[in-house]
Design a protein that fits this description.
Pfam families: TP_methylase. This is uroporphyrinogen-III C-methyltransferase. The structure is a single chain. By secondary structure, this protein is an alpha/beta fold. The chain folds into two domains: 2-128, Cobalt-precorrin-4 Transmethylase, domain 1 (3-Layer(aba) Sandwich); 131-256, Tetrapyrrole methylase, C-terminal domain (Methyltransferase, Cobalt-precorrin-4 Transmethylase, Domain 2). The chain has helices at 2-5, 31-39, 51-54, 77-89, 108-117, 130-137, 168-174, 187-196, 226-233, 250-253, 255-264, and strands spanning 16-20, 42-45, 62-65, 94-98, 122-125, 152-155, 178-181, 204-209, 217-222, 239-243. Helix 4 (77-89) crosses helix 5 and helix 7 crosses helix 8. The mean pLDDT is 93.
Length: 271
């Protein structure tokens, strides 16, 4: 372990590291991530980063909240990017902490471009995206050779907050598994589009909320029932929408719920 840790580069003053915090469980952080948290002078973090992860920072680290939660008051992306530049120019070791992975619907690319334009040294530390880790904790393989050899990640809203103008017809007809980030607000429109372009009304759908945390909830439904079932369930964002027959494997492979049940009832007693 010491040999591995010794190869982690120093976090130099005047630089910015863009770090993915993963979907929620602190155990999914990389070694680079932990080293960065312990070295940073200032941490600029998003709303979905857990308290447990924030507590891994060094004793002198300043925590600065940047918001960035769908439907909630948030700092503008331009302001956040410029704040990173200003802090780095003050000679700080600036850690920009984002849920999931910085480059997967995380706007890390926009921040990196601003840093590059201002000659600020930066490093990107990937994180486990919720579209991968969240599905694994829900007992849903992203790919399975009996069901699919391809999958598509798509955002549920664009920069204006509306349904993105992607080619829904090609996605519906060409991708056996569709993982939709930040799509709860527009779930009715999205499911109608997919069915309108030929997806079966009975196709399995999973909604995964608070993935990888002790609050995780998984709702299984179908394309035609998804909107009503979500409304009845009371599930709220952050949540993923998964469309495809890999969802059928959830009930067989849901190791996370089984593990939680064993911890809550270690004797195996039943009510």
């Amino acid at each position: 372990m010491d040999k591995i840790l010794g190869k982690i580069p120093d976090f130099k003053p005047g630089s910015v590291w863009l770090l993915g915090a993963g979907p929620g469980d602190p155990g999914l952080l990389t070694l680079y991530a932990v080293a960065a948290l312990q070295q940073a002078d200032i941490l600029v973090y998003d709303a979905l980063v857990s308290k447990d992860i924030l507590e891994l920072t060094g004793p002198g680290c300043i925590l600065e909240y940047a918001g960035k939660r769908g439907g909630k008051p948030s700092a503008k992306q331009k302001d956040i990017s410029e704040r990173l530049v200003a802090l780095a120019k003050e000679g700080k070791r600036v850690l920009r902490l984002k849920g999931g992975d910085p480059y997967i619907f995380g706007r890390g690319g926009e921040e990196a471009l601003t840093l590059k334009a201002n000659n600020i040294p930066f490093r990107v530390i990937p994180g486990v995206s919720s579209g991968v880790g969240g599905l694994a904790f829900a007992g849903i393989p992203l790919t399975h050779r009996d069901t699919n050899s391809a999958a598509t990640f798509v955002t549920g809203h664009d920069a204006s907050g509306e349904v993105p103008s992607v080619n829904w017809e090609h996605i519906a007809k060409g991708s056996p598994v569709i993982v939709i980030y930040m799509g709860m607000k527009h779930i009715a429109i999205i499911t109608e589009k997919l069915m309108g372009y030929g997806r079966s009304a009975d196709e399995p759908v999973a909604i995964i909320a608070d993935a990888t945390t002790e609050r995780q909830k998984v709702l299984t439904t179908t394309l035609s029932r998804a909107t009503d079932d979500v409304a009845k369930s009371g599930i709220e964002p952050p949540a993923l929408i998964v469309v495809g027959h890999v969802v059928d494997l959830h009930h067989k492979l849901d190791w996370f719920t089984q593990e939680a049940n064993k911890q809550n009832n270690p004797s195996g007693d039943r009510d």
